[in-house]
Structure prediction request, 104 residues.
Amino acid sequence: MEKVRWVEKDRYGNEIYLTDERWEHITNPMNHPEMEECETALRETIRFGSRKQEMLDPQKYRYSRAFGDLAASNTHIVAVVIFRFSKELMPNNFIVTAYQKKIW
Prediction:
């Protein structure tokens, strides 16, 4: 298993983790480098943000939370989380990606 960077519980009590590999993917200059300074805000998004289930993929959820100081007039941080089970039938809920978005 990849190295876990941190684990947070969402408002429903689900443990969600971020790996170093996924953080490197998120902050890669070709992806979302503006997230480099937003790791604390990402953690808050998981803990306190609203959550919506994807209609076409019921294991995928988008967490979002508004922030007032994001880059390029963006208003929210969005985290995409996959809910699965490991081989031992333990929850395996992890962040796939995260980004900033302007939401009206």
